[in-house]
UniProtKB/TrEMBL annotation:
GO MF, any single term: dioxygenase activity
Entry keyword annotation includes Nuclease: no
Signal peptide start and end residues: 1-17
Organism name: Siphonobacter aquaeclarae
Family matches, as SUPFAM superfamilies: Glyoxalase/Bleomycin resistance protein/Dihydroxybiphenyl dioxygenase (SSF54593)
Protein name from the UniProt record: Catechol 2,3-dioxygenase
Keywords: Dioxygenase, Oxidoreductase, Signal
Stored PROSITE patterns: VOC
Tagged with keyword Signal: yes
Domain VOC: 25-140
Any Pfam family the entry gives: Glyoxalase
């Protein structure tokens, strides 16, 4: 029994010491959308994300956008079912320069949003994209 426990412990320690998958950072988020043009207009024109060139044979069914320095959003045509969400459900979050500026931008355009203060004092704003995916805007904690 003692030998079994020593062998089990040795194998367990050996396995836990092995490297995991080795993820180093986030690359992109892919969202399936109903109308690629409407969604591209929202992410590009409304949110102001920089568009990334898509291979020519994919332009009709894809739109890619840069977020920050090295992350992306990939829009994929083909959604047929509605996205069902609420502000406590699935969403992705991005940092903005100024929450006041972001909220003023939304108000000036009568764009629907929900604002709240997180438990640690950070203000959050949730906005729906054309498909109903929720985008959380928040300011880096000072």
């Amino acid at each position: 029994m003692r030998l079994f426990l020593l062998l089990f412990l040795g194998v367990s320690l050996s396995l836990s010491a092995q490297d995991k998958i080795g993820i180093v950072k986030h690359n992109h988020l892919a969202l399936q959308v109903k109308d690629i043009q409407a969604s591209a207009k929202f992410y590009g024109d409304f949110l102001g994300l920089e568009r990334i060139e898509v291979p020519a044979d994919l332009k009709a069914i894809r739109a890619w956008f840069k977020i920050g320095t090295d992350q992306q959003i990939h829009l994929l045509a083909g959604r047929t079912e509605p996205v069902v969400n609420d502000r406590n459900g699935s969403h992705f979050a991005v940092f903005v320069e100024s929450m006041e500026k972001a909220e003023a931008y939304l108000k000036a355009r009568n764009y629907p949003y929900h604002a709240q203060v997180r438990f640690d004092g950070v203000k959050q704003i949730y906005i729906p994209d054309p498909d109903g995916y929720l985008v959380e805007l928040n300011e880096m904690k000072k």
